[in-house]
Design a protein that fits this description.
- One of its GO terms (molecular function) is calcium ion binding.
- It comes from Mariniphaga anaerophila.
- By secondary structure, the protein is mainly beta.
- The chain has one domain (about 25-175): Porin (Beta Barrel), CATH 2.40.160.
- Helices cover about 5% and strands about 55% of the residues.
- Strands 1, 2, 3, 4, 5, 6, 7, 8, 9 and 12 form a ten-stranded antiparallel β-sheet that branches. The protein has a two-stranded antiparallel sheet with strand order 10-11.
- Strand 7 and strand 8 (about 115-130) form a beta hairpin.
- The longest helix is centred in the first third of the chain and has 14 residues, at about 1-15.
- The chain is elongated, with a radius of gyration of 21 Å.
- Residues about 5-10 and about 10-20 have low confidence and may be disordered.
Length: about 200
């Protein structure tokens, strides 16, 4: 537990230096969570990891790999490809809004005990900016289970373990913004994209 806490704090500190946006298009997220098995009404701990690619002010693409742990063992593993729709796209809410809600959904491959197969998951969440470069993501999601069979009361019974999950994630981004004239202002915000070398500029180039 101490190692996990130290890892989470390390990622939080790294996240203070990077945040995903149109300038830094790639990001990594990692965080803990809990899940409930709706079939068995059991609670377990889980971890979530993903690689994210900024597509536009409205959409991100995520390759997610959450896993759940129950009774000191791995209960499920569910890599998936998700599309995240951001309400803080400049049209619905400001890109600098203090609360930044989003929806996500996508297909995946679920390994659940001895069963495996294609599934899908969906959910909602919000990004909470903590500083100009650090944000906390809180998510609630639904994981649709796969059809399987299990021995219950000495009988082979058809089951489908659907899950609800809650996670908290710290995300940090990497990459560099394109700056054609080298004045320190990214091209997408540069009103003078051909500034000569040595000329002093403001935040707009």
């Amino acid at each position: 537990m101490k190692r996990f806490t130290l890892l989470f704090l390390s990622l939080f500190i790294l996240g203070s230096a990077f945040a995903q946006n149109a300038d830094k298009k790639w990001a990594i997220g990692l965080g803990p969570g809990i899940y409930q098995n709706l079939e068995k009404n059991e609670l377990g701990f889980m971890g979530d990891f993903y690689l994210s690619r900024y597509l536009s002010p409205s959409f991100d693409l995520l390759l997610k790999a959450p896993g759940g742990f129950y009774n000191d063992g791995v209960d499920f593993f569910n890599p998936s490809l998700n599309l995240r729709f951001k309400f803080f796209n400049g049209n619905i809410l400001s890109e600098t809004s203090s609360i930044q809600p989003y929806l996500f959904a996508g297909p995946g491959m679920l390994w659940d005990n001895m069963d495996n197969g294609l599934n899908f998951n969906a959910g909602l969440g919000s990004k909470f900016p903590l500083s100009p470069s650090t944000s906390l993501y809180l998510e609630a999601g639904y994981v649709h289970g796969i059809d399987g069979e299990r021995h219950i009361n000495n009988q082979l019974t058809a089951v489908q373990d659907n899950l609800l999950r809650l996670t908290g994630i710290i995300e940090f981004a990497f990459g560099a913004a394109k700056d054609s004239d080298g004045d320190g202002v990214p091209d997408r915000r540069d009103r003078c994209p051909d500034t000569p070398p040595g000329v002093q500029v403001d935040e707009h180039g």
